[in-house]
Amino acid sequence: MKFCSQCGAALERRIPEGDSLARFVCPSCQTIHYTNPKVVVGCLPEWDGRILMCKRAIEPRHGLWTLPAGFLEDHETTIAGAMRETLEEAGARVEIASLYALFNLPSVNQVYVMYRARLLDLDFAPGPESLEVKLVDESAVPWNEMAFEVITQTLRLYWQDYRAGTFHTRAGDVIRLPGGERVFETRLLELP
């Protein structure tokens, strides 16, 4: 962010009076511009012991595999966003079954909200952001061709739950250590 959306003046980064964090502040009109994490929403679309995956047709991570997911739009619920992303990326219609995971990625200012979902039918096809879509069981997941670590970990937890015959809702943090290594910490959530 470089310029004020209110008056057009160049912004400066400083801690505003009464705040404790650096913000973009307009020195001309004093407007404080807040930046917040982006919310990514997606699904684990299920069908007969398999999950629908997408091969990315866009950057970042072109040509690698992921679950249908993307950024939440303004005025959209997380459930509606997850269903929209699944339709856009995989041409698949789903019914949300349950919240599966909420993961914080503070190093990239993102929060992932992932739902378990039932495919309504087998009428799916790649959308403009996907090269290919396919149903996979655990043995067919392209583990060495995954686009995002958070999706890899989501799938590992999902298949662990699938084998155990019970699904848990999880929260977790992906922490980037000095040197770039990522640590993935998860915990179970007890939801009513």
Automatic annotation (TrEMBL):
Membrane spanning residue stretches: none
Entry-linked InterPro entries: NUDIX_hydrolase-like_dom_sf, NUDIX_hydrolase_CS, NUDIX_hydrolase_dom, Nudix_N
Gene3D superfamilies reported for this sequence: 2.20.70.10, Nucleoside Triphosphate Pyrophosphohydrolase
GO MF annotations, alphabetized: hydrolase activity
SUPFAM superfamilies: Nudix (SSF55811)
Cofactor(s) this protein cannot do without: Mg(2+)
Residues annotated as domain Nudix hydrolase: 36-159
Keywords of the record: Hydrolase
Protein name (record): ADP-ribose pyrophosphatase
Organism for this UniProt entry: Candidatus Muproteobacteria bacterium RBG_16_62_13
